[in-house]
Amino acid sequence: MKFIVCLVIFLITLFNGMLASHIRGGYIRVVSGNGSLTYKFEVIGFTDTGSSVGFGGGELDFGDGTIISLEGGDATHETILLGNETSLTKYTISHTYQAPGAYTVRVKEFFRNASVINMENSVETPFFVSTQVIVDPFFGANSTPELGVFPAVFSRAGSRFFSAVGSKDEQGDSLVYSLAVPLRDFAEEVYSYRWPNDISFYAGENRGETPVLKLDKLSGQLTWDTPELAGEFGMAYKVIEYRKVDGEVHKLSETTVDLQIINVESDMLPPNIDFDYQVVSNGRIDFIVGYETLAADSLEWSFYSSGLLNWDGADINGHQLTDTIAGGAGFNGFVALPQSAAKPIYFVLAARSLNRLNPFKTVKSFAVNPTGEEYVINAVGHPKEAVILRTYPNPVAGTMTIQFPELNEVKVQEIELINAAGQSILKTGIPINGNLATLNTEDLPGGIYLLRTSLGQQIYYSRFIKE
């Protein structure tokens, strides 16, 4: 009997471990609906290929009361092997909000992968990420940032580690980065979290200074003095997106990214990257780049700039260079800046050895401000919550009645109609009788429309269907 009980306990433990040991990191990306209230959502998870369990067993909360199961819903998904013992699984689904507003999109799933050193019992700790986004046609099309570097990388134990978590933004909005503690639920941190540079991980090492762990707020450059202790370290960071509209800076989104760094003992060394630059004028930055290995390995490298690249005097009319070199090499060129050079220009340099036994990749990023001054985001505006106007009938075929709040002496109110593609198709003033107005919709094509108006500092919306 005792043997049977022990066997059952063993099998349960083994089964839970098989189900649990898989999630390394991930994030949620919200993709623009071209100014409409329909968005595409990409839930991206990075999993340990040593586990037979895939990503997608959790729930997606759109922040408006709608919650779906990723696997059991209408989301499509794809899985890609990335190497570095990691695979990417992306679930994609569309969702339409009933009104503009600030929404927090969340996903929670069991479990993280086992044996993460700097958190307690990671194998039974939920994985949780979120993205806060402003849904409002007033700001036009907006997609949250897309991750530029996969969040599961190797570091060499006992050395300085360089990587970059910089993201790409389709609309060119300003991005600011900060370190964060991984979460197990909304506003709940993982159990007993310790930062990867906690001195307890460096026991017995002769270190005269506190180990470095920092994330540059503008370039997304991540630097870490790794301990000699090998293993997997979990961490998280936030990407906050800002946009200037009508002279005022607004916070549009805040994305939390969960990632993992695998610290390994190795005789191999990561490649070296050198970068130097000079701001020649407000329309040009000259640069010099060098890549090298300490061994005779060949390198695969890439060089990205948010400005247009000119390489060795030849205009390539693009933003990225890639090549393979033997040993070490360098090149020079310049970047042509956009007309508005008030914001920093971003450079991302990456290199990895083509020696299949060398798992290390070096990524460095830089934010160069052409004005030579510190780039500061302040005076951030906070969009007000949308208030819904009553419109009837809805759906409507002909004349629609709009019920406004108490307007006092207002006799004419300006309204704007936005179609499903996010295009403004009509701006007009309509007469007010008391707090009611009518709008003839007979000439509108059938479809979904958004009616927008403002009273003082408050924005009002109504979503209606034209039959």
TrEMBL record:
Q: Which residues form the Secretion system C-terminal sorting domain?
A: 392-465
Which is an annotated Pfam family here? Por_Secre_tail
Q: Which residues form a coiled coil?
A: none
Which protein are we looking at? T9SS type A sorting domain-containing protein
